[in-house]
Design goal:
It contains five helices and 49 strands. The two termini are 24 Å apart. The protein is globular and about 95 Å long. The chain has a 22-stranded antiparallel beta barrel. It has a five-stranded antiparallel sheet with strand order 21-20-19-24-25, with no helix packed on it. It is mostly beta strands.
């Protein structure tokens, strides 16, 4: 297969939902109906036995790349994961690198492709070599990696992915143990896609002239955004930098057998990661004649005319006039692209900048003892991290752009009604509002220390019956020193360029002085399972687990005000699972019914007492929600005959919100805050009633053919069942031919039928501006019935793509 991201490989595991429509970044992964607001909140993504990032510091997928260096993925789904890894009650997915073998072995591969329904070129080269370094073969090495350059499935006018990684390891084995040294260097640029304008709630399709390969990312733009106050960074902004990810990691693993059936393992890892995200975060249309648009973009009261021009070609699109002496104060005379999406519309295109700098140190050690028919294991896990986070994602500056594929930035010139000189609302590139917005900057300096003690016991009661149990106790320390933005003011000296007519840089603002607070949390988990083997073909098992997870970093930062943050309890899960496992010469089959209960799901927010120069905030009481899912997983492989085989996995499930409450803060201050209760609903967009993944394959002599069918059932768009997202059906074809015993060629076609399969959505725009589009929870059947032809916004599976691989095996 040719996956769109490393996370997409997990679709091969039953019970795992992967949302990879955005590309390589910001994937969402949920297991067994355990859905939480976040991408990988309840699972641990690992590489060679260690978490890619600490358990509380965001999405690790950006630092994970699967290539020919990957040996296998070990997956633990279900309750036992809560004791086998830190903060992982939903599952552990460990991507394991290849190791050097006793004989030299290598592979070199080149992939040429056309993404975006055959429009956009893709190039990838990867390789891996390994083998012995000494005559006695006790020293072995392996090194591999890749480089790729691609315009992307949705080409924005500049390459959407370029970069790669190198990974290597060195192993020394001796009579009583081994020492392994791993190293990784990742330097990669890529970007996640934005939502596509869409019509038709029954049969979604791109709106107007948009296609499933259209890009709404910002035009290629490069400029320097100067600091306008204390703590606000000067930013060298170049949208072509995309999300620039770096990872320099090294780890050491020592295994020692001590005699008398004792064994000890110790592993250390240090990593320095850096993610600089340059681009756009929210791209939605707005009507330039709406009252709210003019309020948000600081135009209200500035009467006169605003000339809209293409920033690159200087083509005039028309003029916006503001005149409160007329019944309709805002009018636009001209022709803006995208009128079929929204009349008199432009894309809101904020220039975002997010800088993450993460230093992680990990240690895990264990001792184990085998005694008769039992094995005992105990150990310690420890992680110290520092995360420095500078966030200007809403926004470092503002752009308005045309509503079309590959939007063009719009320059705006303002002619005041009193006849005074023309003012430039944007610079020559079409960028305005430097360091002005709802969040033009925020800085967090976070330190965490996470520790866990664990113990496990396995007991072979007899030749058929096995019992295992284990426990884990975790304690977590969190501290943060943060700076938030103060209200912006208009500069009296004309801003950073001292020119009052260039109003795009006339704002002044600053970050507050550092404010610090500390938090602590602890959690414990336990699990016990019993396995009974009836005969050589048939076995059964039953497991009960109670898992906990300490709060995520984002849970604290989302509620921090005035040097404090909400006190948040750990989240807990209860999982009950059983299984029937059957294996014969040609068939393997596993059937796993499960019950997952997720409780203590925090809804922690803050709200405003006042706005303006004397703005103040307050924390609302944390609301704790609860949900459960029941279902059954199926996994099978069938060798039909010497040529045909079938591999399939599936999950059938139902998700229920036992308690689902959120705050509606309404007006300023707490006096009218109310709770919205939507408990008892049997739906979730991320817990589809069924998920199938079926692959029939044919192999004869030098020919291989495989067809993968991935299906996601029809499911409600939100908790109100406002409408239903149609089923997603993606077919991927792989055809291979062995030219010789060392050379293979393969053709892959992803999404053969170019299906527009919707994975996520945001609401129609009302009031002419994008603010309410994120409030999908408030959309009802009546909303849709009142405006069935409304434009809304979707994230769909990636368009059809073609890949040709040529692989050389080195012996």
């Amino acid at each position: 297969i040719v996956p769109n991201s490393s996370s997409e490989l997990l679709r091969l595991i039953p019970g795992v939902f992967v949302q990879s429509a955005r590309g390589e970044l910001r994937n969402q992964i949920f297991t067994r109906g355990m859905v939480f607001d976040g991408s990988v909140y309840l699972i641990s993504m690992q590489e060679d036995g260690f978490p890619i990032v600490s358990g509380q510091s965001g999405n690790p997928g950006g630092y994970l790349r699967a290539d020919v260096n990957l040996s296998k993925i070990e997956a633990v789904r279900g309750g036992s994961a809560s004791i086998l890894g830190v903060n992982a009650p939903g599952g552990i997915f460990n991507y394991i690198s290849k190791m050097g073998e006793s004989q030299f072995d290598g592979v070199l591969s080149t992939r040429l492709g056309l993404e975006g329904n055959g429009r956009n070129p893709y190039l990838r080269t990867e390789g891996n070599i390994g083998g012995p370094l000494s005559k006695d073969k006790s020293w072995r090495y392996n090194i591999g990696g890749h480089y790729r350059h691609a315009d992307g499935a949705k080409y924005p006018g500049y390459p959407l992915s370029h970069g790669g990684q190198i990974k290597g390891n060195l192993v020394k084995t001796y009579s009583t143990g081994s020492i392994k040294l791993y190293a990784k260097w990742l330097n990669d640029h890529t970007k996640d896609f934005e939502f596509t304008p869409t019509v038709d709630f029954d049969n979604p399709r791109p709106a107007g002239n948009f296609k499933n390969y259209s890009s709404v990312l910002i035009d290629a733009v490069k400029l320097t955004l100067p600091s306008n106050g204390d703590g606000v960074r000067t930013i060298d902004y170049d949208s072509r930098d995309l999300n620039h990810l770096k990872d320099n990691s090294v780890s050491l693993h020592w295994e020692q057998r001590l005699g008398d059936a004792w064994k000890t393992n110790h592993a250390f890892k240090f990593s320095h990661k850096r993610s600089t995200d340059v681009g756009t975060f929210i791209v939605y249309p707005s009507d330039v004649t709406s009252f709210l648009f003019n309020v948000v973009f600081d135009l209200l009261g500035k009467t006169g005319s605003y000339k809209f021009l293409n920033a690159s070609t200087r083509k005039e699109y028309g003029t916006l006039t503001q005149d409160f002496t007329k019944p309709v104060p805002f009018t636009f005379n001209g022709n803006l692209p995208g009128s079929e999406i929204i009349p008199n519309g432009v894309f809101f295109t904020p220039l975002t900048y997010v800088d993450n700098d993460i230093n992680d140190f990990f240690y895990q050690g264990s001792f184990s003892k085998t005694w008769k028919n039992m094995k005992f294991t105990g150990g310690l896990y420890s992680n110290k991290s520092q995360l420095k986070y500078y966030n200007a994602n809403a926004s470092a500056a503002t752009g308005l752009s045309t509503i079309e594929d590959k939007p063009q930035l719009i320059a705006i010139e303002y002619s005041p009604a009193d006849g005074s000189p023309v003012q430039h609302f944007t610079d020559r590139l079409g960028v305005g509002s430097y360091n002005y917005g709802p969040l033009y900057a925020e800085y967090n300096d976070i330190k965490t220390w996470d520790n866990a003690l664990f113990i496990g016991h396995q007991w072979d009661i007899n030749g058929r019956l096995n019992l295992d149990w284990g426990g884990r106790y975790e304690w977590f320390h969190f501290s943060n020193s943060y700076r938030r933005p103060t209200p912006n003011n208009i500069s009296g000296s004309g801003g950073t360029d001292h020119d009052p007519l260039t109003i795009y840089d006339n704002y002044t603002g600053a970050l507050t002085s550092p404010v610090s607070y500390k938090k602590q949390s602890n959690a414990y988990s336990y699990s016990a399972g019993i396995n009974y083997r009836q005969n050589k073909n048939l076995a059964y098992y039953l497991r009960y687990s109670n898992g906990s997870k300490v709060p995520d970093i984002s849970t604290y930062t989302a509620s921090q005000t005035a040097g404090a943050s909400a006190n948040v309890l750990p989240q807990t899960t209860i999982q009950l699972e059983g299984g029937i496992k059957y294996q014969s010469k040609n068939i393997t089959l596993t059937l796993t019914p499960f019950l997952s209960v997720l409780s203590g799901i925090p809804y922690a927010v803050y709200a405003s007492n006042s706005i303006g120069a004397d703005a103040s905030f307050y924390n609302l009481p944390v609301l704790y929600n609860k949900a459960h899912a029941t279902g059954v997983e199926l996994e099978t492989t069938v060798q039909i005959n010497s040529r045909w085989s079938l591999r399939a996995n599936a999950v059938i499930q139902q998700f229920i919100t036992d308690r689902y409450q959120t705050w509606n803060t309404r007006d300023l201050g707490p006096k009218d805050d109310t709770i919205i209760d939507q408990s008892g609903k049997k739906i979730s967009i991320f817990a589809a009633p069924y998920i199938f993944n079926i692959t029939p394959a044919y192999k004869y002599k030098k020919i291989y053919a495989g067809l993968n069918w991935y299906s996601l059932s029809r499911r409600p768009a939100n908790i109100n069942e406002a409408f239903y997202l149609p089923a997603v059906n993606q077919f991927d074809l792989n055809l291979g031919y062995a030219i010789s015993n060392k050379i293979n060629i393969k053709l892959s076609v992803n999404n053969i039928f170019n299906h527009f399969g919707v994975m996520d959505w945001t609401a129609p725009i009302t009031g002419g501006i994008f603010f309410n589009t994120f409030d999908t929870a408030s959309v009802t059947k009546e909303t849709i019935k009142a405006n069935p032809k409304a434009n809304y916004y979707t994230m769909a599976i990636q368009p059809r793509s073609f890949f040709l691989d040529l692989t050389f095996h080195l012996k």
